Amino acid sequence: MVKLAGHLRKLKYDMPQEEKILSEAIILIVEGSMLCASQLQTRSLFRFLKASVDSKSLANLQLKISQLYQDLTLRVAIEIQHQQPIAFPSWKPIYPDYAIGIEDQKKQVMNLLDMETEKSTLAVVIYGFGGIGKTTLATAVIADLVLTHYNYSGVQIQEDRSRNDIKCMQQQILKDAFPAYTYDRNVTLRNSAEGRDHLTSAFQARGNKPVFLFIDNALHAEDLEDLFPKRLAGIPKGSRILVTTRNLGVTDMLKDAGLARREHFVDTLAPEEARKILFGNFNPANTRHRDNVQKILQICARIPLVLEIVGARLRKQNYMVDRCTQIFEALQTGGDIKAENLSQRLVNSVYDELEESTREAFLDICCFFVNWSRRDVEHIVGTENITLLQEAALMKTSDKDELIVPDIIRAKGRSLSKCNRIMDMQSWLEVAHDHQKLKQIKGVWLGKEESESGNEVDEKQLYSLKNSLRVLGLESQIKVSGSSQKSSKFKELRFLRLGGDISALWPANLESLERLTVFHGPVFKDGVTLYQLPKKLQIMRATAQSHCEEPEPTKIIQNSYLEELDLKELKSLQKLPGKLDHLTALKVLILDEWDKIQELPEQVCGLPSLCRLSICGGNSLRNLPNSFGQLTSLQELNLSSCKQLEELSSTFGDLSSLKNLCLAECVSLKELPLGFGKLSSLEVLNLDGCWNLESFPPSFWELSSLRHLDLSYCMKLKALPSGLGKLNSLNVLSLFGCKKLEDLPSNIGELPSLEKIDLRGCRNLRECPSALRRMKRGLSVSLPDHLVN
């Protein structure tokens, strides 16, 4: 199909009178290619990497193409799907923006991996004591690698991992690294022993692509023995295995299995890097302080995690170094401490100083909410508690606003929670019949993975948790027996997740759960409202129990406290249920994949607090209401892949608070409204894949706050006007794949903030403007192939 699309592109130049119909044909073929691609990782096609592909989808596309172009076919693609599933790889980790002082070590590890020249299979082990930054280093390495030709899989081993955890990691590796093997045999593991057998066979199966496996935090030799066969002679040639561990000896089994092993010891930070973590931009001035700084660096052994925690203490004391000596005295009580134990001792000390409510929040996060959105978790454990934990350096927030907890700290939390937070069925069964132990339980989440211990929970046992339970998650495979309709007694419950048909056993009235702030679960069944939800509910992610075309109006949308409403799983709905008049506090509304909604209701434009609106994949949406500009609080708008969207509202420029706008793959959009330049707060604009966009309104170049402009694959753009030089805040400009672009404005050199410009794929660009060549050093310019020299 790729070759076919290439031939059609050539025809466009030979048959200019047929350009329109040929362009449409290329779009259809590329769409089919995307559905068939197994390793496609182009950023503009991210949605397709999240969906499974079946024969029906391809057949529907084939029908669509055959109606317009009788000579074009997707039969080969359909046949491929029958033979082997389209398996999409796990996402690689993103570069850790909080990393300091790892660039040299990252280069050393990449040299050891030798991805370019070394064709044999090898393992690289990153080792060092806890808190030294092994995971951060490995994450940075993988984020910078191009793994297009590998099947990538990454798993992290927890210190208190169960046999069920091992089974789930085995299943993950099989699915990611050996998709064909997993599909052909319909592999669903029942236990870890079965997982070892399947992994042994998968590693030795013929025809596999090379694999890149990342095993983080291997603590014991048994961890690797559960994930790798005893002999790795059959592993696909050119594969790489990257392991982090505190003990190099743990990885001896890789050598015994026949792999070449290379090692990298993570050293402590250089003094200047350590000072940067410890003090940031603060510079201790007097001699006495400088002496204390040297003492601190010596005691901290220049270990990143220790420096972060001690640095947090210094910030709290306004960098009065003398006031922090007590923490070192506590650490050194009983004699000298080895560097490898320092992180653990320090975490214990900081935890002991937390207030009770902050401790409970810490334990909830370590057990249930690592890598969750900070905003979601704030509603469960409280904003103040998360702020205190971050100020103590016990957790961080990623650039995706997710909570990150280092493995040593997370292990500490999970260890302390063993007696009062239940995370698997086996642990539940151990306490279910002990009335005294049940009274201490504060969190239960069952059914995330299949269990060998059964899947039935007695409702009376759940009810015995009425005075303590804060978090409850029951997935679809969990059966609740003997419903006594007493959920209203759970006065402390703050988070509730109900999967599948569990809701049929739950009382219809959750209104009395006074402290419930986050609810994930079904709200409609056959078009009928299931619940009257708590009046103070703040976040609701709705799921559908069964197909429902026209739900009845429901009280969930008359909740004046509700801040986030996520209805993306109710995509079969054709309109929003009920009225929205009472949603005065609503900040986030998510309607992704609602491909039946043709127009956005006017009442959405009357939501006074709405900050984020997402209708990604709204394939039937053609335009926006005239009153859309009334959303003056809106900061983020995602209309990507709304393929029928032809125009934006004439009042669009009135969105005075809009900072981030994504219109990627809005292939029917031909122009932007005249008042577009009035978006004075707009910082990020993504027009990637807007095939039919030809020009911009004159006001466009008045976007004074615009930092990132993505015009990739705007196929009809021939030139950019001189107004481009007015975008004084522009840092990044992407014109990747703008194949008709012939010229850039001569004043492009007047952009004072430009750091990166991407011109790859601009095959008709006549020359690289001399203004770009004269610009400041540090500007990154990616040129098309014909201008590289």
Could you characterize what this model shows?
The model is unreliable at about 35-55, about 70-90 and about 545-550 (pLDDT under 50). Helix content is about 30%, strand content about 15%. The strands form four sheets. It has a 17-stranded mixed sheet that branches. It has a five-stranded parallel sheet with strand order 2-3-4-1-5, sandwiched between helices. A two-stranded antiparallel ribbon has the order 6-7. It is built from 24 helices and 26 strands. Helix 24 links the parallel strand 25 (about 755-760) and strand 26. With about 800 residues, the protein is of the alpha/beta class.
Describe the secondary-structure layout.
Blueprint: H1 2-14, H2 19-36, H3 55-68, H4 75-83, H5 103-113, E1 122-127, H6 134-144, E2 151-156, H7 163-177, H8 179-184, H9 192-204, E3 211-218, H10 221-227, E4 240-245, H11 252-256, E5 260-265, H12 271-279, H13 287-300, H14 304-316, H15 325-331, H16 339-352, H17 356-369, H18 374-381, H19 383-391, E6 396-397, E7 403-404, H20 407-416, E8 421-422, H21 425-431, H22 435-438, E9 443-446, E10 456-458, H23 459-463, E11 471-474, E12 479-481, E13 495-498, E14 518-525, E15 528-529, E16 539-544, E17 564-566, E18 588-590, E19 612-614, E20 636-638, E21 660-662, E22 684-686, E23 708-710, E24 732-734, E25 756-758, H24 770-774, E26 780-782
Helix pairs in contact: 1-2, 2-3, 3-4, 5-6, 7-9, 12-14, 17-19, 17-20, 18-19
Q: Helix fraction? A: 25-40%
Q: Could you tell me how far the N terminus lies from the C terminus, measured between alpha carbons in angstroms?
A: 32 Å
User: How would you describe the shape?
Assistant: globular
Low-pLDDT residue intervals, each spanning 5 or more residues:
37-55, 69-90, 546-550
Mean pLDDT: 77
Q: How many individual helices?
A: 24
